[in-house]
Write a structure and sequence with these properties.
Layout: E1 17-20, H1 26-37, E2 41-46, H2 50-61, E3 67-71, H3 77-91, E4 96-99, H4 114-142, E5 145-150, H5 154-157, H6 163-183, E6 188-195, H7 201-204, H8 222-234, E7 242-245
Parallel strand pairs: 1-2, 1-4, 2-3, 4-5, 5-6, 6-7
Helix pairs in contact: 1-2, 1-8, 3-4, 4-6
């Protein structure tokens, strides 16, 4: 099949449905809005901030796109199944899955507990596996899908949160490559984005985060991560890659 023209439609993702986990604020919210601007309908997942999630849905609808909010703890298998089923029933399917939900609990090495480890791995990594497994059957049946995993520069450098966080985010990169390799011929791409110190509540609450860690000398903006997510949603030839949106902290 011949490649499509490089010229883009005004709404190149029109007719597509995106599920963004952890989309009530920060990077997830910015990605949800950017996908809506590109024409996608958006399912907004949240855990605790219903009001913020509803506000994000209102913004999505402002782009004349459909939006709905879905409360679920994506670290729990039964809740993920309920979430995906709910999105499929309301929107007809999931074309784009953005695994963005995550937590960061800054700890000194000697202060990391087993509970810290287990919860961080569950929310940041297990959730990615659970949501991918649940959304994949529909994508494979349609021979079209985009899975975008929001990892972190911590996966590449160790970061400023702690080993528990770095390990969870590094696991996402391995998961990304493994799925990408197995799905490449089925029309489903799987990629990761690795941001560094983006202006969010998560970074603001981390006493170890400083803009002087970043070569460009400032924190990133959520919209700058969202731009990378839209590119990955549009491109069917990029798969198994990690897009570094990090101000030059990690270069490869």
């Amino acid at each position: 099949m011949e490649p499509q023209s490089a010229g883009f439609k005004t709404e190149p993702l029109s007719g597509k449905v995106a599920l963004v986990t952890g989309a009530s604020r920060g990077i997830g919210r910015a990605i949800a809005l950017a996908l809506a601007q590109a024409g996608a309908d958006v399912a907004i997942n949240f855990l605790n901030r219903a009001e913020s999630a509803e506000a994000a849905a209102v913004e999505v609808r402002g782009y004349a796109r459909r939006a709905a909010v879905f409360q679920a703890d994506v670290a729990v298998a039964t809740e993920v199944q309920r979430l995906v089923l709910g999105v499929q029933e309301q929107f007809g399917g999931i074309d784009i899955l953005v695994n963005n939900a995550g937590i960061a609990s800054p700890r000194r090495i000697e202060d990391i507990t087993e509970d810290d480890w287990d919860r961080t791995i569950a929310v940041n990594l297990t959730s990615c596996f659970l949501a991918t497994q649940a959304a994949l059957p529909g994508m494979r049946a349609r021979h079209w899908g985009r899975i975008i995993n929001v990892s972190s520069v911590a996966a590449q450098t160790g970061g400023v949160v702690g080993p528990h966080y770095a390990a969870s985010k590094a696991g996402m990169l391995g998961l990304t490559r493994a799925y990408a390799q197995r799905l490449a011929r089925e029309g489903v791409t799987v990629n990761a984005i690795a941001p560094a110190l983006v202006e969010t509540e998560m970074v603001a609450s981390n006493p170890n985060a400083r803009p002087d860690h970043i070569p460009v000398g400032r924190y990133g903006l959520p919209v700058e991560v969202a731009q990378a997510a839209v590119m990955l949603a549009l491109n069917g030839y990029v798969t198994g890659q990690t897009i570094n949106v990090n101000g030059g902290w990690y270069m490869n």
